[in-house]
UniProtKB/TrEMBL annotation:
Calcineurin-like phosphoesterase domain boundaries: 2-195
InterPro entries referenced in this protein's UniProt entry, alphabetically: Calcineurin-like_PHP, Metallo-depent_PP-like, Metallophosphoesterase_sf, Pesterase_CT488
Organism: Anaerosalibacter massiliensis
Superkingdom as given in the UniProt entry: Bacteria
Lineage: Bacteria, Bacillati, Bacillota, Tissierellia, Tissierellales
Protein name: Metallophosphoesterase
Pfam family, any one: Metallophos
Listed GO MF terms: hydrolase activity
């Protein structure tokens, strides 16, 4: 089985309470871990599209990553906008985590399913979209292309992980969707949206791609079965 859950926002230091987004965030870490342990088996794969830990440095994020590493299943993690601890794959792999694969400019094969992904970026029709955002946006599109180009044998399906929704604020598909369509991606999961932001969730089959939001509060802190 393949599951998805993003935006865990773990905080080993306990200095970043998430209940500012609503009472449902109270004890959210415990909810996630309990649901995870009751559902996920060692042979399952869990896709985690970003905002994993509030830590600012990799050595501080280790405490949160270790918790994830000790949970059942294999995990694939991509970067979110709050994952400031994210460093080179060499440094992250040197942590010695046994069940986590950090996805960056590459792909991952699970049975006959290929997983690709990148962070993505904010919608171009955002009021505060700047020239800097344009550069970041284009870089992220290129990183998704690098991930897709790394596929040697696509298998039965391609699943793409993005942190930001691949849609404009008016719900129209953006360049990330266009690129995924070119490579015949089958499923795209994303997160990032919390509380009032859920109004921007798009879940549908568009351009022959199934889109799913797996932000932790959107799925009630319960890993969602994707495939």
């Amino acid at each position: 089985m393949i599951y998805g859950i993003g935006d865990l926002h773990l905080d080993y230091s306990k200095k970043k309470p998430m209940d500012i987004f609503g009472e449902n965030w109270l004890d959210h870490e415990e909810k996630i871990f309990e649901n995870w342990k009751s559902k996920i088996k060692s042979e399952d794969l869990v896709l985690m599209p970003g905002d994993i830990s509030w830590a600012l440095k990799l050595e501080d994020a280790y405490n949160d990553l270790k918790k994830i590493d000790e949970l059942p299943g294999k995990k694939i993690i991509t970067k979110g906008n709050h994952d400031y601890w994210w460093e080179s794959k060499k440094k992250m792999n040197s942590l010695g985590l046994e069940t986590i694969f950090f996805l960056q400019n590459d792909s991952y094969k699970y049975e006959n399913i290929t997983v690709v992904g990148t962070r993505g970026w904010k919608a171009k029709d955002s009021e505060d979209f700047t020239e800097h955002d344009e550069k970041m946006y284009n870089r992220e599109v290129n990183r998704l292309k690098l991930s897709l180009d790394s596929i040697e044998n696509r298998g039965d399906k391609i699943i793409s992980m993005l942190h930001y929704p691949p849609f404009n604020l008016d719900s129209s598909p953006n360049e990330f969707v266009n690129l995924m369509r070119e490579y015949d991606v089958d499923i795209c999961i994303y997160g990032h949206l919390h509380s009032e932001g859920h109004k921007y969730v798009v879940e549908d089959i568009i351009e022959n791609i199934e889109f799913l939001c797996v932000s932790s509060d959107y799925i009630d802190f319960n890993p969602f079965k994707i495939y």
